[in-house]
Amino acid sequence: MRALLLAAGLGTRLRPLTDTIPKCLVPVKGQPLLDIWLERLTEAGVGPFLVNTHYLVDKVVAFIETSAFREQVTLVHEKEMLGTAGTLVANIDFFKGQDGMLIHADNYCLADLTAFRKAHINRPSECVMTMMTFQTDTPSACGIVELDERGVVIGFHEKVLNPPGNLANGAVYILSSDFLACMGNNFQTLNDFSTDVLHRFVGQIYTYQTNDVFVDVGSPLGYAKANLSAR
Fold it and tell me: Which of 120, 154, 193, 214 is most exposed by smallest CB count within 10 Å?
């Protein structure tokens, strides 16, 4: 299974750390975040990988050139960022007509990726993707999902005060080949995957909840939490 890792972000909330280090390479317990993703995905049988770049691209290129996973990684540079949906649409052909993963690579995620893949295989027949979810301590800062009794999404609450629950969208997805074809054919002008795409598929998104470590490292608090978490 192929995976697109979204890694072009500026990391403005992590400055001054990200003045010289792209967000995808900030170290968590001494290991660059992107390296953690590539290592754990490879262990789960996922690959090859496409990684989009924008900010401090030379440092990402230099990292990949010396990476143990360099033969499995293709970099695609965005002179102007396309947005999470725009990047997916621009690189639909990478998936070669098969199911694939879309990953916001600014998360520190120790979820069982093999179990995640199995959940996708066993999803309800009407579901076109499987979303990873996690319990968050800051629901108003996350995209909160409502589920039916089968674990299918029936509602989204994107960064609102007092959302109904604390089950958050982890922004790690397995997308079916049918969904990818739909994106390529019908959603060429959309920008953000979370806000422009997901609500169109309510009732067709299965979920897999991880109880392992899952932290958004995009803020100083989250970055500190990731570095203090167990592994």
Answer: 154
